[in-house]
Amino acid sequence: MRQLRHLFDNNRAWVEQMLAKDATFFERLAEGQFPEILWIGCSDSRVPANQIVGLLPGELFVHRNVANLFVHTDLNCLSVLQYAVDVLQVKHVIVCGHYRCGGLLAVLRNDRMGLIDHWLQHAVDVREKHRDLLESVADADLKANIFCELNVIEQVDNLCTTNIVKDAWSRGQQTALHGWIYDIKDGLLRDLDVCLTGEDDIAARCEAAVARIAESAAAVTPAE
Ligand code: CO
User: Fold this and answer.
1) Rounded to an integer, what distance in angstroms lies between the CA atom of residue 209 and that of residue 148?
2) Roughly how many angstroms between the first and final C-alpha of the chain, as a whole number?
3) 173, HSE (Cβ side, Cα atoms, 13 Å)
4) Ligand 1 centre from 93 Cα, in Å?
5) Nearest alpha carbon to residue 206 among 168, 175, 179
6) Which residues, other chains included, contact 25 with Cβ-Cβ below 8 Å and sequence gap of 6+?
């Protein structure tokens, strides 16, 4: 007997719903994909990329991994980026983190979970880089939120240093990089305002974004 029957039922219902709105929807998708946005997000089941930004199949090229990390030695995410930028010619690359990220919470708690600890070591590096800022925040929830935001900024920074993005910019391709964060608690997205469109001022813009995060942390953390 086929398992997960309800998923096939859901699929049939979804196809009917889509066809009722647009009879040629799937025929057009079959012709090819022309998404303008690459989404790099977390694998977390609570952060489904297309749904939270209201985009249809064909409109978002997606890469997800635990803790939305963009790692220079990860052939998987490098391949996604290269295909998205060079072949699909996406206009936007969004790194979207989220609050209450299990991977990042584990890093803050120094949990040991097995193989995944090796992957999360990249987030440990982010934690260590911003150790002073994180240690200045007493409230555990706020510290975790700030860590999630800092991690997004660092991944945007990692994107900038790839030859894929550098080459796109140097040949005049319009490719904007963005850092966003999603709040599972209310379903809302927030722009961390680290939009990068060229090689100028990358470090300064990332530093400014980190400074804004530090300011917002200081605003709710009483001075010692
Ligand atoms: Co996550």
Assistant:
1) 13
2) 64
3) 21
4) 18
5) 179
6) 18, 19
Active site residues: 42, 44, 46, 98, 101
> Model confidence over 143-200: pLDDT tens digits?
999 999 999 999 999 999 999 999 999 999 999 999 999 999 999 999 999 999 998 8
Q: Which homologous superfamily does the CATH classification assign to the domain defined by 35-220?
A: Carbonic anhydrase (3.40.1050.10)
Rounded Cα gap, residues 140 and 87, in angstroms: 43
Matching residue, tokens 């200045």 = 136
For residue 31, the CA-to-ligand 1 centroid distance in Å is: 33
| Model confidence, pTM | 0.95
Cα 141 to ligand 1 centre (Å): 15
pLDDT digits (tens, 9 = 90+) for 140-157: 999 999 999 999 999 999
Question: What residue ranges of the chain are covered by domains with CATH 3.40.1050.10?
Answer: 35-220
